[in-house]
Inverse folding.
């Protein structure tokens, strides 16, 4: 809001020079303050200008054109140094005053912009970048996946026996091929799917004319979420039911190598029926995995950790545990089925002998 020229100012302007209230007049500072009451920021800058303004007794005299500019710029004539005859205020005096005032007002911002301290600077710095090809794909598939009503089912699994077995087998590995937890877990999932084939199916959502359907799939093509140099990729191991754990390990290593070199084929990347995401190989206890659109279940694995537990005789013993987090499509999978499948996988992992007994 601009300040107005008060009737008193008009009277001063109209009065002869000797009647005009000069800076020494007791009225002068009060009117200057009143003129800027509505613009606090201007007030301090103008007050500085008042401090350095001249004391000429004709400073308040000027023409109607200059008064118009004073009004438009919200300037009190008493603050302006007049350079005309008898200290009259000219147009250029007002413009000079306004330029000096505006410069003073903008200085605090310029100063803060000039000395940016990365430690305390609160200003946000943004940069827009395009998504990588893998991120673009992830953007599309994950957006579609979130149309599926997911539910999460989690449990802690005791991997102490499996740790011991894995260590023993790896010590004896003749060809240097090591087995990780993941290779056993993939096999356990496949064995459990034999009793819960719905979890290997896909949903055909249907349309207004066609009812939704479940498409059952015989082969267990188990997808592995992989952290690769290009980003998240999910190749799958075909027909896990027909493979030994060693063979699963070998195929997993092949896919990892290909993923690292950006050489996964379309066949490697398509046809998955259920996915395992081992985020625990990087870190983290829990994960809420998001379903792949053509699947109805996914298993997320957390990092193994050693915890104190009680044995049958209430003695404190060490246990290695891992969290298993399942997400499932609640349109076709109910909680009880998911819990039974989870229990079956847990039983195979906690008692690896049971898994061996089921191997063909
Ligand atoms: N807890 C503790 N240790 C684990 C573990 C877990 N959950 N999973 C793996 N390890 C161990 C392995 O046994 C191995 O140990 P070792 O050297 O003593 O034998 C070590 O960690 C390295 O394992 P890694 O080479 O990663 O093999 P892997 O077969 O377990 O996992 C991948 C392979 C491809 C799954 C893994 O490298 C990867 O990319 N994980 C990230 C998956 C991801 O990004 N998921 C999120 C999707 S949203």
């Amino acid at each position: 809001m601009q300040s107005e020229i008060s009737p008193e100012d008009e009277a001063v302007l109209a009065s002869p020079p000797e009647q005009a209230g000069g800076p020494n007049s007791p009225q002068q500072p009060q009117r200057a303050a009143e003129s800027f009451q509505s613009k606090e920021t201007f007030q301090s800058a103008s007050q500085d200008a008042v401090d350095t303004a001249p004391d000429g007794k004709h400073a308040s005299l000027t023409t109607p054109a200059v008064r118009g500019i004073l009004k438009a710029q919200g300037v009190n004539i008493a603050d302006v140094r007049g350079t005309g005859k008898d200290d009259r205020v000219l147009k250029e005096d007002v413009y000079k005053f306004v330029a000096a005032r505006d410069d003073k007002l903008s200085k605090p911002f310029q100063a803060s912009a000039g000395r940016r301290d990365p430690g305390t600077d609160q200003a946000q710095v943004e940069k827009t970048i395009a998504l990588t090809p893998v991120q673009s794909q992830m953007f599309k598939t994950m957006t579609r996946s979130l149309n599926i009503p997911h539910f999460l089912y989690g449990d802690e699994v005791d991997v102490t026996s499996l740790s011991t077995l894995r260590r023993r087998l790896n010590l004896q590995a003749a060809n240097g091929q090591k087995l990780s937890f993941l290779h056993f877990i993939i096999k356990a999932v496949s064995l459990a799917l034999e009793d819960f084939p719905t979890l290997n199916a896909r949903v055909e959502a249907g349309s207004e004319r066609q009812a939704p359907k479940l498409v059952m799939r015989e082969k267990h093509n188990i997808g592995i979420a992989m952290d690769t140099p290009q980003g998240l990729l999910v190749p799958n191991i075909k027909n896990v039911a027909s493979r030994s754990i060693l063979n699963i390990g070998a195929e997993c290593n092949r896919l990892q190598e290909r993923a690292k070199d950006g050489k996964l084929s379309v066949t490697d990347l398509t046809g998955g029926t259920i996915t395992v995401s081992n985020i625990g190989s990087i870190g983290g206890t829990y994960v809420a995995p998001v379903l792949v659109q053509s699947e109805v279940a996914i298993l997320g694995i957390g990092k193994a950790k050693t915890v104190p537990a009680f044995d049958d005789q209430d003695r404190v013993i060490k246990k290695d545990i891992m969290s298993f987090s399942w997400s499932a499509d609640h349109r076709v999978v109910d909680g009880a089925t998911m819990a039974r499948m989870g229990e079956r996988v847990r039983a195979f992992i906690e008692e690896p002998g049971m898994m061996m007994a089921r191997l063909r």
Residues 178, 180-182, 224-227, 232, 252, 256, 277-282, 301, 303-304, 322 surround coenzyme A (CB under 6 Å).
